[in-house]
């Protein structure tokens, strides 16, 4: 419990400091582009009138689908690359080459091939996350101590049992750590993928307010997207706490 | 009885084949504790790996013989317990889950009725880990982890027990305690055991029979029946004489 309180304290501290900087910026810059934060918070109820939860759920759906597909493809691929030298030889150059490519640069191609709707958005999310998953899984499987296999193989375990009892639990800590980073990236990608072919999503909300020169609304969107990012962060923390209790000590 | 006949094992690295064990034959009688003494790199761990089923044997036969019935040694059929050097506990499972893992996995293959809860609790108790059952391995000291590994090996009532330098990760005092405790449990079960080590004292304390392995492809340099089995600090001149012989053979 004290851990939750501690986290809350850090959260409030950070929140206040950030708003203070914002407020100082408002005082010093004296421009409509940086409105008074109090003005923004006063108008926060507008977000509800603007159906903000619908926007949030669209964004979460896109991130969620991208994440789901990434895990679905990334975990088996990573495990395969760790266990099969042949697969690693074949796939590693591809992963190594594709890893640093900025995936958003592929957005035009995804749009042309998959259209302007959800498919191209989700595929970009997928591409942003999947390589990190593959690399994290492969590396953590490679670092499993050999004696664990010795112990479980001497009990006559099948391949599936080995994956269930050894491989999957072993990849959890590193996988979740890398997901924390890639989900942060996924949230920022919302600006790209929600800039076309949709009327919903927090990214769209901000871009739309921007184009209407409604800066108060725009800031509301920025705050909302920050909260979404933060919530995902906390969620991963929570899952890590639950699934990797053994690793904390 | 375990019978190893003309076994050869090699591994490949950079397209070259390295022979680790060449044409090794060995028998371990039922209820015998066999110690294989050898310098590092002699292939003794490779032999343990082969018996545990983690590496392939190039040629030769490993048979497990019960009541004159010959069966190829197979972890799916025979209960093999193993205590590796770093204990091999799964960090994501509690002590209890670690200890029960072999039974859980064998559930389908082997009759588990004989593993009644009473017997299991007795093992926990005699190893002094009954209060540690809900801890994770990271919360254990080296000595405690070692005792958990011993419990895990014995709970499944193994047909064959494999030990690879099981006490070398412990400090001097904990090591003596652990050896003593191990011997106590071992005497209750009389499991056929192969223990590889480079400690002469350990060999003389825990082995009915001792084999000294040379550095070259798993050759046997020396073999002896051991009359000092179970004697912690025997104080006779012959003991020191035997120690000296073993040390010379080990060089």
List the helices and strands and how they pair.
The complex is a heterodimer of chains A (249) and B (251).
Chain A: H1 2-29, H2 37-42, H3 45-49, H4 52-83, H5 85-98, H6 107-114, H7 118-142, H8 146-153, H9 159-193, H10 202-211, H11 215-243
Helix pairs in contact in A: 4-5, 4-7, 4-9, 4-10, 6-7, 7-9, 9-10, 9-11, 10-11
Chain B: E1 2-13, E2 16-28, E3 33-37, H1 44-52, E4 59-66, E5 69-72, E6 80-83, H2 95-106, H3 117-126, H4 142-155, E7 160-164, H5 172-189, E8 192-197, H6 200-206, E9 209-213, E10 220-225, H7 237-250
Parallel strand pairs in B: 3-8, 3-9, 6-7, 7-8
Antiparallel strand pairs in B: 1-2, 1-4, 4-5, 9-10
Number of strands of chain B: 10
Biggest chain contact: A-B, 24 and 32 residues
Helix content of chain A: over 70%
Number of helices of chain B: 7
Order of helices and strands of chain A: HHHHHHHHHHH
The value of Rg of chain B in angstroms is 18 Å
**Secondary structural class of chain B:** alpha/beta
Account of the protein in words:
The complex is a heterodimer of chains A (249) and B (251). With 249 residues, chain A is mainly alpha-helical. Helix content of chain A is 80%, strand content 0%. In chain A, α4 crosses α9, α4 packs across α10 and α9 runs parallel beside α10. Chain A is globular. The model of chain A has no long low-confidence stretch (mean pLDDT 88). Chain B has 251 residues and is an alpha/beta fold. In chain B, α2 packs parallel to α4, α3 runs antiparallel to α4 and α4 runs parallel beside α5. Chain B is globular. The model of chain B has no long low-confidence stretch (mean pLDDT 81).
Search tags:
heterodimer, A: 249 residues, mainly alpha, 11 helices, 0% strand, globular, B: 251 residues, alpha/beta, four-stranded antiparallel sheet
What's the short version?
By secondary structure, chain A is an all-alpha fold. Chain A contains 11 helices and no strands. Chain A is globular, with a radius of gyration of 22 Å.
């Amino acid at each position: 419990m004290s851990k939750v309180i501690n986290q809350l304290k850090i959260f409030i501290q950070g929140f206040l400091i950030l708003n203070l900087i914002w407020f100082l910026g408002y005082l010093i810059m004296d421009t409509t582009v940086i409105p008074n934060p109090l003005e923004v918070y006063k108008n926060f109820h507008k977000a509800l009138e603007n159906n903000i939860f619908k926007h949030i759920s669209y964004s979460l759906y896109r991130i969620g689908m991208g994440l789901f597909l990434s895990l679905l493809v990334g975990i088996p691929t990573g495990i395969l690359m760790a266990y099969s030298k042949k697969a690693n030889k074949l796939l590693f150059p591809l992963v190594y080459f594709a890893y640093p490519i900025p995936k958003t640069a592929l957005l035009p191609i995804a749009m042309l091939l998959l259209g302007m709707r959800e498919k191209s958005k989700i595929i970009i999310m997928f591409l942003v996350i999947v390589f990190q998953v593959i690399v994290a899984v492969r590396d953590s499987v490679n670092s499993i101590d050999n004696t664990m296999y010795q112990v479980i193989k001497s009990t006559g375990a099948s391949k599936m049992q080995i994956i269930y009892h050894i491989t999957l639990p072993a990849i959890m800590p590193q996988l979740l750590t890398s997901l924390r980073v890639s989900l942060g990236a996924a949230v920022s990608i919302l600006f790209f993928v929600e800039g076309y072919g949709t009327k919903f999503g927090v990214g769209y909300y901000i871009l739309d307010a921007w184009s209407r020169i409604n800066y108060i609304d725009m800031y509301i969107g920025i705050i909302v997207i920050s909260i979404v990012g933060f919530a995902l962060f906390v969620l991963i923390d929570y899952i890590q706490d639950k699934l990797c209790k053994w690793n904390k000590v | 009885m375990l019978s190893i006949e003309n076994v050869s094992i090699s591994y490949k690295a950079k397209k070259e084949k390295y022979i680790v064990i060449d044409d090794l034959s060995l028998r371990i009688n039922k209820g015998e504790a066999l110690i294989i003494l050898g310098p590092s790199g002699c292939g003794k761990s490779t032999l343990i790996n082969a018996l545990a089923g983690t590496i392939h044997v190039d040629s030769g036969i490993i048979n497990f013989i019960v009541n004159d019935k010959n069966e190829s040694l197979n972890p799916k059929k025979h209960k093999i317990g193993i205590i590796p050097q770093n204990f091999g506990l799964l960090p994501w499972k509690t002590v209890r889950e670690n200890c029960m893992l072999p039974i859980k996995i064998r559930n389908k293959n082997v009759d588990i009725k004989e593993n009644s809860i009473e017997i299991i609790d007795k093992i926990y108790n005699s190893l002094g880990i009954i209060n540690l059952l809900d801890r994770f391995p990271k919360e254990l000291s080296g000595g405690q982890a070692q005792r958990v590994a011993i419990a895990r090996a014995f709970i499944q009532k193994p047909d064959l027990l494999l030990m690879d330098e099981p006490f070398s990760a412990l400090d001097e005092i904990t090591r003596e305690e652990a050896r003593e405790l191990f011997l106590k449990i071992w005497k209750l079960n009389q499991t056929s055991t192969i223990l590889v080590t480079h400690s002469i004292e350990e060999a003389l304390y825990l082995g009915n029979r001792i084999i000294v392995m040379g550095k070259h492809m798993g050759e046997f340099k020396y073999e002896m029946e051991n009359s000092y089995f179970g004697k912690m600090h025997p104080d006779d001149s012959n003991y020191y004489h035997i120690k000296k012989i073993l040390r010379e053979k080990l060089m």
